UniProtKB/TrEMBL annotation:
<dbReference type="Pfam" id="PF00149">
    <property type="entry name" value="Metallophos"/>
</dbReference>
<protein>
    <submittedName>
        <fullName>Phosphodiesterase, MJ0936 family</fullName>
    </submittedName>
</protein>
<dbReference type="GO" id="GO:0016787">
    <property type="term" value="F:hydrolase activity"/>
</dbReference>
<dbReference type="InterPro" id="IPR029052">
    <property type="entry name" value="Metallo-depent_PP-like"/>
</dbReference>
<feature type="domain" description="Calcineurin-like phosphoesterase">
    <location>
        <begin position="2"/>
        <end position="218"/>
    </location>
</feature>
<dbReference type="InterPro" id="IPR004843">
    <property type="entry name" value="Calcineurin-like_PHP"/>
</dbReference>
Length: 284
């Protein structure tokens, strides 16, 4: 069996998914093979390039600066924890990232890899849009595709939005790719009525038969729906945020299990079984 832990919209709290997975493994005895993150990581290595929303939130919540504080310069305690845990994170870009920083890393990355590393510990890997990845362990494998950034109805070229070179890569993929297991995006597929979402995500779901699609971004609660293609189960992951009581809520950590041809998911009841709160989670 292969097992993934899936999160969305961590907004700088990079250590939190790793700590939750570590605790979950100890609590359940179930090994996690990889962490999946659906964008809005909050990758800002310095304050100068932070967007206004991140700066505004950071004035009240230092967690928004988690990448700058903990993942740019090596911390021996964090390094020891991550090396002992030994679980990689695979992520897609969201709209709240330093895209100049990420572009530079992507452009200088190994062209043969479908991802590039972004942190000093080499544990966080950002998926290149349109390049499939196969994760394996001794028992199973799972195929996934990532589409980063968000859609735009107005044709703007800001790096927040899906870029033309990424769109062209997706078009090339559709000519050769068969069915895949999961699609990871930040944005949702575009809605025909209101026009919100990404047409590129909708195109991916029309061209490839995925079993599951996971996304974040919208601010909606956790929910599952059948995609318009009538095949894919589309899952909105709740943002990994502490509520007004300082607690994490169900729907912000999903466990996916693949056992041969069978894929299933479950939402972890964080409030009930993992008692992290906003003030203490860093020290657990």
């Amino acid at each position: 069996m292969l097992r993934l832990a899936i999160f969305a919209d961590i907004h700088g709290k990079f250590l939190l998914p790793f700590k939750l997975v570590d605790y979950y493994q100890a609590l359940t005895g179930q090994a996690i093979d990889a962490i999946i993150q659906c964008g809005d990581m909050g990758v800002f290595p310095e304050k100068n390039n932070m967007d206004k929303a991140t700066l505004r939130h950071a004035r009240h919540d230092r967690d928004e600066l988690g990448f700058m504080d903990n993942f740019v310069k090596m911390d021996s305690d964090i390094a020891k924890f991550l090396n002992t845990l030994n679980i990689p994170m695979y992520a897609v870009r969201g709209n709240h990232e330093d895209h100049d920083f990420l572009d530079n890393l992507e452009n200088n990355s190994d062209k043969n890899l479908p991802y590039f590393h972004i942190d000093c510990y080499q544990k966080i890997r950002v998926l290149k849009t349109g390049f499939p990845l196969i994760l394996t362990n001794d028992a199973d494998s799972i195929s996934l595709l990532g589409i980063g950034r968000i859609g735009d109805r107005k044709g703007r070229e800001h790096k927040t939005f899906i870029q033309n070179y990424e769109r062209e890569q997706l078009k090339k993929l559709y000519k050769t790719c068969g069915d895949m297991d999961i699609l990871i995006t930040h944005d949702k597929p575009i809605e025909s009525i209101r026009g919100y979402g990404s047409s590129d995500v909708a195109d991916a779901l029309d061209n490839i038969a995925f079993c599951y699609h996971f996304y974040g971004h919208t601010g909606e609660p956790y929910h599952e729906t059948l995609a318009d293609n009538g095949i894919t189960q589309s899952v909105k992951i709740k943002e990994l945020e502490f509520n007004q009581k300082g607690k994490l809520e169900t729907g912000s950590m999903i466990i996916l299990e693949k056992d041969k041809d069978n894929i299933s998911i479950k939402s972890v009841p964080l409030f009930d079984i993992i008692h992290f709160d906003k003030e203490s989670w860093r020290y657990v």
